Amino acid sequence: MLSGYSQAKSNLAAAVRLWPLFAGVLLFVAAGTLQNTVVSYRLASAGHGGDTVGLSVALYFGGLVLGALVTPKIVGRIGHFRLFPAMALVSAITMGLFPATSLISAWMVAQAITGFCIAGQYVAVESWLNRVAEPDYRSRLFGIYMFFWFLGAGLGPVLMAAGTTLPGGVFMLAALLMVGSGIAVLPLFRLSPKGAAVPPLRVAALYRASPAGLVATFVVGVSFAAGLGLTAAFGYDKGLDEAGVAAFVACFVAGGALTQYPIGHLADTWGRAQVLVLCAVMSALSALPMFMDLPLAAWCLAAAAFGGVSLPLYTLGVTMVQDQMAERDRVAAAGGLLLFNAKGSFLGPLLIGLMAGTFGSDTLFVVLCLCHLGLALYTLRDIRRAPTPALQPD
Predict the structure, then answer these.
(1) If pLDDT is split at 50, 70 and 90, which confidence band does 138 have?
(2) Of 37, 391, 6, 16, whose CA–CA distance to 226 is shortest?
(3) 275 and 142 fall within a common domain
(4) Which of 134, 159, 171, 303 has CA 20 to 30 A from 377's CA?
(5) Which is nearest to 372 in space by CA: 288, 247, 259, 265?
């Protein structure tokens, strides 16, 4: 009893020592979501079509994919501590350039650069946590990390109105948040782990572990990127102002944050694949109210419902894959899943944006509805071929 208590106390102390890292996560995630929401809304309000808005979001996530491939090697050369603030500084400078030009091509390049740099920050944080966390506490430590991630993702859109009084507007606020994230990690200089980040596991190995789990991570990539970026343009077409769009996007993220634990608990007891099918079907159904003419409060409730059942699909997909992985491969598998998720985040807005430019903004939720129905059917097929049991107690 005493040894277990002592271990728990030691693990809690380790988490508390990492508070600067979690503060940095909150700030850089808030900066990234704020930038993407504002860019999408500004492009839509300036009369640009869904194809242009989709391209801007896709380029951000394209930079994220490239960064996830390149920055693990940089970690091995300069270390986690140097990589994180360096990427924060470059991102902040790039964000500060948005109000300096109205050239769409310059905004597109800036989107890609910030995506690349933020990927470097993700790689630094997640490989950092994987190296300093004890195996029996790693899941809980990542749970704390995800709490601050969702807090930042929800905070970013809310700050749209707050930045309007600053010189340079909301982009300057995003840059200040990014600078703050780099400063926040400075107290961790002595705790920075040694060694390179683990390269991501290949897609073939992840697919062999759980086909449905891997596909789920891709679909959530499409859904999250669309929810983060394209819903701003969708909201503008529906007559929402900046405050309304901010509330709409924030509710989408908040819905996902609030349901992570209960859906995870249900998956642990009932079965991951079965809960994944249920959430995928509910995601498709919750997209249907988006086709109606609703007041802002109803839009926000619909966004929260969609986020609440669609965003937890990433955790379900990841755990379905990780359940089949040996302990030595789990860090590499996490990197591979994140990279595959980012590919969905790149391709989804690009293709949906092109279709929205032709068929209108309602295309967004038509495609998301069909994607989630397809995921449910694919998972049912996977269950029939190779059932995935619920985890049993050790």
Answers:
(1) low
(2) 37
(3) no
(4) 303
(5) 288
